[in-house]
Q: What sequence folds into this?
């Protein structure tokens, strides 16, 4: 096994090892992680799912519940759902302020809310 | 003074100091400036005082390239010109519109916005507009309910529009012109040929004809072509006795750089709760001022995009409204009124005073000056024997890139302020797609064709609207535009004409 493959496998293993903790966390706040709050006030859930599917198609690397969760979570931890919700809302605005935007099905979105739509589309597939 | 050229003996010779060809917004504005001066001004109008199908037919021509309206529908051929059907939308060009922009090929006027400011103020009077004031902040003081959307002022601004009643020049100024003793208005006097001296450095006379079979000669010291971008170019190209390529066309620029405003539905804006967007709404014939969302010069430069603005229509109504290109097909005032009724009906049907959650964003944007977008002459002639105009309207990738850029900027601003979200329409979603949808249309605005510039190789007229190589020939109106900016052209073309008029007065005075 060459060095590059070893490093890749090690990273993958580390992610798998952390899976039980993260999944328990996602289950706990599952609805919040997968609820793009602002978008859900604009359009119906069918559109949210379509946006989510569109994002997964355009960013195939993130076409998995685990990867989306890891990307959304980053290095942060939340003990309560309200804190998580507020943090996600804040992240959405921060995304726009720092040009972390993506166009999905024509919608100009923050990367965070696009990932939330993607997660929602997986959970509600 | 009014003379019907059909009633004159055939081959009459008409003489004056100044000859203005065309009695629309530009020609009438010019003539008004010369009332009670010691100069005899000849004002030539091809039509009469009312709409006539036979006169409109003289404007018929072919179009190629990007789908366009029938040419005879877009301009009115009678006293008052196209003010007979304009909607009265007025706003100023921005300073950036006059500048050379390295991302916009062929941009850059030889004059600045500040050169036009005093004339804009005077043009307001001609067009029955309010005060010469285009700052949102100042207008908002007059009505605190006109609330702005939230955004970073480095990115967007509220571009103010004022609305003319709209002033119909043919109605409003007819008596003034006819009663002016030194203004000699000739109706049914279509200029069909301009004759220069042997080396085409000076104009000696022009020929007018009418459908009654009469032909006359007009002699003057100075000639001003004010018969719109297409007809100005057509007349110069047709006049090829002394200049084989047409007058002022030594460098093949006459007719080129034809520009329209892209007026096209482009995106949607969605809000979490209803919003009346009163500042951005319009009630035709009632609203005196409103705003459209505009992109700052800084952002235009950063994104390398053309100048454009976005207006709002309730989405449910917009979905019922056909595209302009599908309904603006007739110059007949009755047919046109019917077409506009369809617009009003759609909005009335969904009228809701508290506002809407979703709006369609409609763009009004300049097209990049493009030498391939041009007017040439057709082989077919009109009833007066004059070759018809041929329009090749051509857009570039810059227009599409700019449309996307405009809504990307607006979309980001709505995200930053958590106000709403923007969705691009399908035709803008693929950045590699250079095609235009079937509903792409213009605003019936014709600009360019005798563009202004300092370089004789790339322009037709100088900064005073004088044809470069000809001592006494000027063009007035939007044909002189170098770039089209976002606003409708009428206010600026009247301002530019008033500037030309002042210049011509100084030229005439110095000659005397």
A:
């Amino acid at each position: 096994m060459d060095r590059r493959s070893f490093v890749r496998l090690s990273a993958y293993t580390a992610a798998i090892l952390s899976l039980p903790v993260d999944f328990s966390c996602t289950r706990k706040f599952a609805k919040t992680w997968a609820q793009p709050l602002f978008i859900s006030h604009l359009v119906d859930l069918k559109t949210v799912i379509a946006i989510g599917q569109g994002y997964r198609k355009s960013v195939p690397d993130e076409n998995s519940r685990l990867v989306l969760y890891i990307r959304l979570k980053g290095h942060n931890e939340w003990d309560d759902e309200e804190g998580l919700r507020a943090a996600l809302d804040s992240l959405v605005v921060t995304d726009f302020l720092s040009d972390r935007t993506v166009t999905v099905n024509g919608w100009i979105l923050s990367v965070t809310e696009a990932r939330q739509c993607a997660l929602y589309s997986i959970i509600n597939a | 003074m009014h003379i019907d050229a059909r009633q004159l003996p055939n081959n009459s010779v008409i003489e004056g100091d100044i000859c203005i060809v065309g009695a629309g917004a530009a020609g009438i504005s010019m003539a008004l400036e010369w009332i009670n001066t010691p100069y005899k001004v000849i004002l030539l109008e091809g039509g009469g005082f009312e709409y006539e199908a036979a006169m409109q037919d003289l404007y018929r021509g072919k179009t190629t390239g990007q789908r366009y309206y029938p040419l005879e529908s877009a301009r009115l051929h009678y006293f008052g010109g196209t003010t007979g059907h304009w909607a009265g939308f007025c706003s100023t060009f921005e300073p950036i519109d006059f500048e050379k922009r390295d991302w916009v090929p062929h941009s850059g006027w030889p004059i600045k916005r500040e050169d036009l400011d005093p004339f804009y103020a005077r043009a307001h009077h001609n067009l029955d507009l309010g005060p010469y004031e285009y700052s949102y902040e100042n207008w908002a003081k007059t009505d605190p309910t006109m609330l702005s959307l939230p955004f970073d002022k480095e990115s967007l601004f509220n571009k103010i529009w004022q609305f003319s009643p709209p002033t119909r020049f043919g109605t409003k100024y007819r008596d003034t012109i006819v009663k002016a003793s030194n203004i000699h208005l000739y109706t049914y006097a279509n200029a069909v040929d301009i004759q220069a001296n042997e080396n085409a450095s000076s104009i000696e006379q022009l020929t007018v004809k009418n459908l009654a079979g009469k032909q006359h000669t007009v002699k003057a010291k100075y000639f001003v072509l004010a018969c719109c971008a297409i007809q100005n170019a057509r007349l110069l190209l047709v006049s090829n006795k002394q200049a084989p390529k047409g007058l002022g066309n030594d460098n093949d620029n006459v007719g080129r750089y034809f520009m329209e405003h892209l007026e096209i539905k482009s995106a949607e804006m969605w809000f979490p709760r209803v919003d009346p967007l009163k500042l951005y709404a319009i009630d035709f014939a009632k609203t005196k001022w409103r705003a459209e969302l505009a992109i700052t010069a800084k952002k235009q430069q950063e994104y390398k995009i053309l100048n454009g603005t976005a207006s709002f229509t309730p989405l449910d109504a917009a979905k019922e409204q056909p595209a302009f290109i599908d309904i603006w097909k007739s110059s007949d005032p009755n047919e046109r009124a019917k077409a506009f009724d369809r617009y009003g009906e759609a909005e009335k049907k969904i009228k809701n005073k508290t506002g809407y959650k979703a709006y369609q964003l409609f763009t009004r944007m300049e097209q990049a000056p493009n030498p391939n977008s041009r007017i040439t002459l057709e082989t077919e002639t009109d009833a007066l024997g004059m070759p018809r105009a041929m329009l090749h309207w051509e857009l570039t990738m810059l227009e599409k890139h700019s449309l996307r850029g405009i809504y990307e900027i607006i979309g980001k601003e709505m995200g930053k302020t958590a106000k709403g979200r923007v969705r691009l329409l399908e035709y803008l979603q693929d950045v590699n797609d250079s095609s235009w949808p079937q509903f792409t249309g213009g605003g019936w605005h014709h600009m360019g064709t005798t563009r202004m510039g300092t370089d004789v190789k790339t322009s037709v007229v100088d900064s005073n609207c004088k044809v470069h190589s000809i001592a006494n020939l000027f063009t007035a109106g939007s044909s002189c535009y170098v770039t089209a900016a976002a606003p409708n052209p009428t206010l600026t073309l009247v301002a530019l004409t008033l500037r030309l008029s002042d210049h011509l007065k100084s030229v005439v005075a110095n000659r005397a």
Summary: Chain A has a mean pLDDT of 84.
